[in-house]
Design a protein that fits this description.
three-stranded antiparallel beta sheet, Helix Hairpins
Amino acid sequence: MYKLPDLPYQYNELAPYISEEQLKIHHQKHHQAYVIGANAVFEKLEKARKENSEIDMKAALKELSFHVSGYILHNLLWKNLAPAKEKMEPGGELKKKIEEDFSSFDRFKKELTQAATSVEGSGWAALVLDKESKRLLIMQIEKHNLNTYPSSKILLVLDVWEHAYYLDYKNDRAKFVESFWNIINWKEVERRLEE
């Protein structure tokens, strides 16, 4: 069964970029909802298997994909963020790889920002490592589970569902995305690249 992970920092440590209230609601309500949703589908599947009863498999698997994807992406998100006072920058192999695949850090930042601000509806922007080409790519993820590159390892995610920023930024997604660059845990992104 899934359970809500603890955050690797206090709720107030991402301020002023993400307020304590915004982070608490995002973590305790929205992320928790994916935990509850995934566990409910697991229970439904288990019950159907034990009782040898029929189940709408297409609907169950779609619902499970949605909740599990939301759960996993949020787990990555919390680790991708660092307290505002730490102010990190990418270094080492990560910096080299970004410059190699995007020409410059500024170009990478521009592309990820454009991906995040232009996601249709609710979704995510992500930096991924394509395992086949060994290249860093930008990925837009609609909802939680559409338009993904299946063989890619996710290194960095940015949640642009309104629940991630509405209390602090209202409908100004671009301002939220701009603020995100101040609280990225680049050490975690580099660790995932090296894994």
